[in-house]
Design goal:
The chain is α+β, with helices and mostly antiparallel strands and 269 residues long. 20% of the residues lie in helices and 27% in strands. The strands form two sheets. It has a five-stranded mixed β-sheet. A five-stranded mixed β-sheet has the order 6-10-9-8-7. Strand 2 and strand 3 (51-58) form a beta hairpin. The model is unreliable at 236-269 (pLDDT under 50).
């Protein structure tokens, strides 16, 4: 598997440009310090040469604080006339949140799709639907509160990413704290995403720590989206721990997690 993740060099397209200020130069150097460990997943460069949007997987995230998010987004804005650039960057625990960040900064949604075809594939329709909700974040309903990436660096265990959000949608009012649980199989061939519903962040944290009951699945929303969710759940096979592990991939793959653990600063444990 290692050769599949040998990264190519990210294409920043900054030849002939310099940072607009010394602080921007320092910040850019800090963000890209270990970019020889970045695996480019998608890139978009505007036709006028003024903007670039990049999504990358950082294999060196495991060298940071345990739980650190491994996906890095970069939006570069160039002043073509002045020959200078500015940028914004952020880390994300899962690909759909990274794509949402890029789209909100002007990247065409279809060009934010992952082009690197290596890695595990979504296991079922419910996984694809939940990822689409995070990617589009309709009505800005989700506010990310915390996240934690747990990669045990062992072929005996899969990778788990927990993202805690507050859902402001009226249908979620009884249990607005939502835990999106992404689980990649230990063979790195597929992954599932499931959404748990909790009345408080503390309740979600308790579930994560104790795991004494199945993930309390969120009720399906009303309308067409709810019918699609119900149908996707009905096609799922529930395992002994109460998490669905359905059969076949239905959407493009996203990159596999790297070779060792990552956890976010202060992440949900």
């Amino acid at each position: 598997m290692a050769d599949a993740y040998e990264p190519s060099t990210p294409d920043y397209r900054l030849d002939g440009f310099q940072a607009a200020t010394a602080q921007i130069e320092d910040d850019f150097s800090s963000v890209t310090f270990s970019d020889d460990q970045f695996v480019p997943l998608s890139e978009h460069h505007s036709a006028d040469g003024r903007e670039s949007h990049l999504l990358m997987y950082d294999r060196s995230a495991i060298w940071d604080v345990p739980g650190t998010a491994a996906y890095v987004t970069l939006h570069i804005a160039r002043d073509v006339e002045q020959g200078t650039f500015d940028f914004a960057s952020e880390r994300h625990p899962v690909v759909p949140l990274a794509q949402n960040w890029l789209i909100r900064r002007g990247c065409p949604s279809e060009l934010a799709e992952v082009s690197n075809q290596h890695g595990p594939r979504p296991a079922d329709g419910l996984t694809a639907r939940l990822e689409d909700l995070l990617r589009t974040n309709p009505g800005d309903r989700y506010e990310v509160l915390d996240h934690y990436t747990d990669n045990p660096c062992s072929f005996d265990f899969g990778v788990e990413v927990r993202t805690l959000v507050y859902d402001s949608h009226q249908d979620s009012a009884p249990a607005p704290y939502r835990l999106f649980l992404e689980e990649t199989t230990k063979d790195l061939r597929s992954y599932t995403v499931r959404e748990g519903a909790f009345t408080s962040a503390e309740e979600a944290d308790t579930w994560v720590m104790e795991r004494e009951s199945p993930l309390p699945l969120a009720p399906a929303p009303q309308g067409a989206a709810g019918r699609r969710t119900s149908a996707a759940r009905a096609r799922s096979t529930v395992t002994g721990d109460g998490l669905a592990l359905p059969p076949a991939p239905v959407s493009p793959p996203r990159p596999a997690a790297g070779p060792a653990p990552t956890r976010s600063r202060g992440g949900t444990r």
